[in-house]
Amino acid sequence: IYEQSCEAYKHRGNTSGYYYIDVDGSGPINPQLIFCNVTEDKTWTVIQHNNTELTKIQPSIERSQHFEYTVNEEQLLAIISQSEYCEQELAYHCRKSRLPNTPDGTPLSWWVGGPGAGQRQTYWGGALPGSQQCACSLQENCVDHKHHCNCDADHTAWYCIHSPATKYYGLMTLAC
Fold this sequence. Notes:
Number of helices: 3
Order of helices and strands: HEEEEHEEEHEE
Number of strands: 9
Distance between the termini: 45 Å
InterPro entries: Fibrinogen-like_C, Fibrinogen_a/b/g_C_dom
Protein name: Fibrinogen C-terminal domain-containing protein
Strand order of the largest sheet: 4-9-6-7
Organism: Ameca splendens
Radius of gyration: 19 Å
Largest sheet: 4 strands, antiparallel
Shape: elongated
Structural class: alpha+beta
Strand content: 15-25%
């Protein structure tokens, strides 16, 4: 019999490692091998995906990068529903690159995720949903005030833009 969460393994005295988690006890959802990151203060349930390395995205008409997680959607939703907090993050390192918008304002890149499955999101790093902006625009500290994201400034310096932490993990796609 397997525990229903990483927190339950921590209470049994276990440390960080891979454990089978049975999120619904003896219900219909199968147990899944998941990494539990156990610290003194917090316990993290870490769901692995297929793309943990930096991936160079070449300019093209449409280029996408898919992130598929090691558990199915039913298991993800069950884990999320019993979790106090969930997050997912994507980092995009850029220079002389267009991230949110074409010069006419049309969304050039997006990520697909929650809330809800399959939702196209066009905001980045702390900006408001649907804004087609990055956090630097809200904070009024973008390197070029004419652009809503440092990636769009056409500078040779490298910038790192993050997707917002989201409550829904699901299948995620970055398209540039």
